[in-house]
Structures are given as structure tokens and as C-alpha cells.
């Protein structure tokens, strides 16, 4: 059993594979050297059930090279900065 059953009395249907041709971890299409899709519900619930917490982008990038991690962190920081600036303008 996983954390979903223990904490919320919910159970994932085990052994439901991702769509053929998609990543078996996150259920989306990406190159193996790139991060998993942290926003994928497939990934989020499988991760939560295994670890008892929701995944972060660091979790999604754990299997990546240091170069890929650095690149993605830079892009994620830019996106967050743009969203914060946009939110400030909307106020």
C-alpha cells in the first residue's frame, strides 16, 4: 500500500501503464534525458503514493545530468520571475 491508502483511504489502480510511447514515469512524451513532467497528474499521484509528498521540479529532474538541471533551473526561475511581474502589473 502507498500513502494515498494510508492517509486518505484512497488506492491507485496498480499497474496502469502510461500510453505506449510515453514516459512510463510521468505519462507524457519527452526525451529520456529531460525532466519528467512535474505537472502531469499521472506523475504527481504516482509520486505521492510512493513518497507521501507531492513532487517538485527537483524531483522531476533527479535523473538528469547536471547540465540539464542547470538549464531547467534557469528557465524555471525566468518563468517564475515573469509570472510574479505579471501578477504585480495586474494588481
* Beginning-to-end CA distance, first to last residue: 45 Å
Order of helices and strands: HHHH
Beta-strand portion reads under 5%
Mean residue pLDDT = 87
**Can you give the helix content as a percent range?**
40-55%
| Main sheet overview | none
The whole-angstrom Rg is 16 Å
Q: Helical stretch count?
A: 4
DSSP, total strands: 0
- Low-confidence region ranges: none
Structural class: mainly alpha
Shape: globular
Account of the 3D structure:
The model has no long low-confidence stretch (mean pLDDT 87). The protein has 91 residues and is mainly α. 51% of the residues lie in helices and 0% in strands. It is globular, with a radius of gyration of 16 Å. It has a domain of 62 residues.
Primary descriptors:
mainly alpha; 91 residues
Amino acid at each position: 500500500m502507498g500513502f494515498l491508502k494510508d492517509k486518505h483511504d484512497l488506492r491507485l489502480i496498480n499497474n496502469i501503464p502510461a500510453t505506449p510511447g510515453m514516459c512510463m514515469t510521468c505519462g507524457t512524451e519527452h526525451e529520456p534525458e529531460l525532466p519528467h513532467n512535474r505537472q502531469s497528474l499521472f506523475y504527481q499521484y504516482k509520486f505521492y503514493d510512493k513518497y507521501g509528498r507531492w513532487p517538485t521540479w527537483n524531483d522531476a529532474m533527479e535523473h538528469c545530468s547536471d547540465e540539464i538541471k542547470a538549464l531547467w533551473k534557469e528557465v524555471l526561475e525566468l518563468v517564475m520571475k515573469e509570472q510574479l511581474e505579471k501578477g504585480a502589473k495586474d494588481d
